[in-house]
Amino acid sequence: MSSKSRLGQNFLRDPQAVQRVIAALGDLTSRTVVEIGPGKAAITEGLATRAARLIPVELDRELAWILQERFSPEKGFPNVTVARQDILEFDFAAATQPPGEPLLVVGNLPYYITSPILLKLAASAASISRAVLMVQREVADRVTAQPGTREYGLLTVTLQLYGATEALFTLPPSAFVPPPEVHSTVFRWNFAPRFTELAVEEAPFIAFLKQCFAQKRKTLSNNLRAARMPAQQVAQALETCAIPPQARAETLPLTQFAQLFRTFQS
Ligand code: SAM
């Protein structure tokens, strides 16, 4: 069977990398695991023999059918339920078992929809405790970036708002068939949403972060003014938070964004 590049099909062929991905999830014996894009089962096989429950979610009809045959109760896998579905439409909350018990999520992601998948996981944070994901190296650099670096941006703060991220290891294109044009990095995301600790409300705070990062070349102050905040109020709030008037959003840690947001609200 050929690979479909429009579905981001680059199949992993490095058994050591597979073991490292599975190990990074931790103990699976009592857990429900959701695998995004199982493809030809490079990672699925090891998950199916270890996890209490496994839900591989595959969009490709032909691959999903083969997976259903291979991981059926008759073949010794009553714990596996293959979902032939678009992961962007998958209901993570409904997949928790017992209901409310957070999921583990894993996947060598189809790169053409990496950001939508990451944002979908963030929106499903209440149902997930940990994710181990393979993404394009540049994306991993962004989601694990520190303030003041070139890679730090809206995607960074959005993910880190839902939990700590850490890069684990990087693979060359030759680890896949067919080889992609980019290097790939596996990162771990331990979910622990920070809204209570930062004393901010989820939706308005995320909307505020979007305004702060609206234009990369502009200062934070200019971005906020472009969002129709009065110049004097912006200047005062920055001063209250000891943020220099020429500061860019790319230099602020989440705690400072939260402080600034609370200052505007008070
Ligand atoms: N896990 C396999 C591996 O590591 O070899 C395959 C990874 S491949 C990079 C991405 C997989 O995601 C493909 O099997 C592709 O068909 C599937 N896929 C693409 N778009 C998808 C979507 N929207 N929802 C679910 N699966 C999708």
Give a brief outline of the structure.
This protein is α/β, with parallel strands linked by helices.
Description:
This protein has 266 residues and is of the alpha/beta class. It folds into two domains: 5-193, Rossmann fold, CATH 3.40.50.150; 198-265, rRNA adenine dimethylase, C-terminal domain (Helicase, Ruva Protein, domain 3, Orthogonal Bundle), CATH 1.10.8.100. 38% of the residues lie in helices and 18% in strands. The protein has twelve helices and nine strands. It has a seven-stranded mixed beta sheet, with helices on both faces. The protein is elongated, with a radius of gyration of 21 Å. The mean pLDDT is 96. Bound molecules: S-adenosylmethionine. Residues 7-12, 37-40, 42-43, 57-60, 63, 86-88, 108, 110, 113 line the site of S-adenosylmethionine (SAM).
Question: What is the secondary structure topology, with strand pairs?
Answer:
Layout: E1 11-12, H1 15-24, E2 32-36, H2 44-50, E3 53-58, H3 61-70, E4 83-84, H4 92-95, E5 103-108, H5 114-123, E6 128-136, H6 137-143, H7 154-161, E7 163-171, E8 176-177, E9 184-191, H8 195-198, H9 202-212, H10 220-226, H11 231-240, H12 254-265
Parallel strand pairs: 2-3, 2-5, 3-4, 5-6
Antiparallel strand pairs: 1-8, 6-9, 7-9
> In CATH terms, what is the architecture of the largest domain?
3-Layer(aba) Sandwich
Mean pLDDT: 96
Strand-and-helix sequence, N→C? EHEHEHEHEHEHHEEEHHHHH
Question: How many separate helices?
Answer: 12
Looking at CATH, the homologous superfamily of the largest domain is Vaccinia Virus protein VP39
Radius of gyration: 21 Å
Write down the domain tally.
Answer: 2
Gross morphology is elongated
Main sheet: which strands, in order across? 4-3-2-5-6-9-7
The small-molecule ligands in this entry are:
S-adenosylmethionine
Number of strands: 9
Largest sheet: 7 strands, mixed
Q: CATH topology of the largest domain, what is it called?
A: Rossmann fold
CATH top level of the largest domain?
A: Alpha Beta
How far is the first residue's CA from the last residue's CA?
60 Å
Helix/strand-derived class? alpha/beta
State which percent range the strand residues make up.
Answer: 15-25%
Question: Segments where pLDDT lies below 50 for 5+ residues?
Answer: none
